[in-house]
Amino acid sequence: MEIKVTDNWQALKHLARHNQKRLLFTFGLVATENILYLTYPLFSAFAIDAMVRGEVYKALLYSVFVLIVWGLGALRRSVDTRVFAKMYADLTVPVIADLPSSFFNVKYSLILKPTEPAMQPLETYFSAIPDKRRGEGKRYSQA
After folding, report:
1. What is the maximum span of the chain, computed from C-alpha positions, in angstroms?
2. Contact by Cβ (8 Å): 84, 19
3. Burial tier of 33 (Cβ tally within 10 Å: 0-12, 13-18, 19+)
4. DSSP string, the chain
5. Does pTM top 0.90 for this prediction?
6. Mean pLDDT for back-to-back runs of 10 residues, the chain (143 residues)
7. CA–CA separation, 40 vs 68, rounded Å?
């Protein structure tokens, strides 16, 4: 999917049109999760009343409800991460593909610059640490 628009609002409308089912499903999961979060106090009150009356099985239904809510929350986080990552990729890949190759060479060298120290052998780092057993820790005079 290639986006050829000049306005940000047009780009958002284009993304929404081309990902309508995914967005509706994602926001449906969000709405369902929020409604279930609002019913937490109600179901916990039912569970407390059931425990007071000695109805253990009815009280255990609350734990099933909580597990369902947690499962729905995990599903929602998984789905919305994938949906928005796909939308982001659809938006950025054409832009990156149009960049000249010299840009990638500069970007690659900038990315590797901070990682060069991590590529050095560990012995270099360990030899730079003063060893107090050999008296190397007292390099500076204490005045």
Report:
1. 76
2. no
3. middle
4. -----SSHHHHHHHHHHHTHHHHHHHHHHHHHHHHHHHTHHHHHHHHHHHHHHT-HHHHHHHHHHHHHHHHHHHHHHHHHHHHHHHHHHHHHHHHHHTS-HHHHHHHHHHHHHHHHHHHS-HHHHHHHS--GGGTTT--S---
5. no
6. 65 87 95 95 93 91 94 94 89 73 60 57 57 56 49
7. 12
